[in-house]
Amino acid sequence: MNSRRHLNFFLAGLLFLIPYYVHASNGFPVSQKIAEQVWFWEGIFSKFDSNTMIIHDTFYPQIIIDVVNFEIFAKKFNRGQKYSRQKKSTIIKKYIKRYNIALSQFRRAGKKAKDSGPMESRVYEVYSKNPKALRLLLSGKASIRSQTGLSDEFDRAAIRAKKFLPYIEKIFQKEKLPLDLTRLAFVESMFNTRAKSKVGASGIWQFMPRTAKSYMTVSNRIDERNSPIKASKAASRYLSQIYRNLKSWPLAVTAYNHGTGGMRRAIRKTGSRNLETIIHKYRSNSFGFASRNFYSEFIAARNVYNRKYRTKTVFEKNPLGIGQIKLNRRMSLNQLIRHTPLTQETISYFNPCLLPKAFHKRYSKYKLPKNYELFVPKEIMREVSVALKRISPKRARRFNL
Fold first, then answer.
1. Cβ atoms 68, 93 nearer than 8 A
2. What is the pLDDT of residues 335-386, one digit of tens each?
3. Is 272 part of a structural domain of the chain?
4. Are 29 and 128 in a shared domain?
5. Are residues 87 and 207 located together in one domain of the fold?
6. Residue 16 lies in a domain
7. Which helix (H) or strand (E) holds 375?
8. Range of the domain at 141
9. Fewer Cβ neighbours under 10 Å: the N or C end of the chain?
């Protein structure tokens, strides 16, 4: 199937699927317009893989202008050899440049521009199906962007999620949050425990340092954003607080990306608490494509995971094989290593929030705080607990630990 036939086949399902999205919200309301965004992101998460680039309208992502399949492209123009990431980027930039020329034609010539060439004809064809988008096109205000397919990455993320969701769902259940909110981690990080953003966000919940410090420890020795379980506890408390402030899940989920203060400004400036209205009326440099689509991405990720993977997943009770111990007093890592069965490698593996600096000889006297939650292998948890009870403060001082 070539790219254009693939695209047309995909687009044909829109009219049939949108009513499903509208009625399958399960506590998270989805309007007709937001359903169109959800449809787009479901395609990104389940139909198009990383060898495919989607060129679409920035404000109306469901308006897909073109689908570039690099595998087909390579067979046709590169003797079947795979393109590098840089080469893919170069190809897409050329496509975007040519389509931007087509957009400028409509700004100058209006509807007549559709007869200027095949790309202008294609642009008019897809925009004409949406009256509001067509007005943007003809007024010269339409803009486009590209989006890489993520279906293969979502497959890998679903496998990673299987290890963590039993714990995260239990945490969210304890906080009395909808379990579907745990699927936000797909949007934030695809359950990549080592995910780090260019602006400093870290972990599967992509907490920024400033926000994280209100809910967990973030220092040069301990960064609990890197612990999926501890970060999930923080995320559950943070989402609970946002919801109490905004009293709407569409607004609260969007605020996870845009901030509570940002959503309040959007409500104030638009005079509306309806997310769809805010998406279409609110204009702010900080409320860009990611924020406008964040709720729709979440709904799409939830739909794809629950429909494609959840029914096939049988969760183990303790897939990571962890036990949890709360330290009843301040204690150094040297104490733990000397007087318990734990090794530095074991502590580091089960507690990724402990940074390398915490283990450095220069900081050998550094003590973990009282009530610190330490994760250990389940099979030796009892042995570790018994050993910890034998460590007295006097003995610790005597060994200068």
1. no
2. 899 999 999 999 999 999 999 999 887 756 788 999 999 999 999 999 999 9
3. yes
4. yes
5. no
6. yes
7. strand 373-377
8. 3-151
9. N
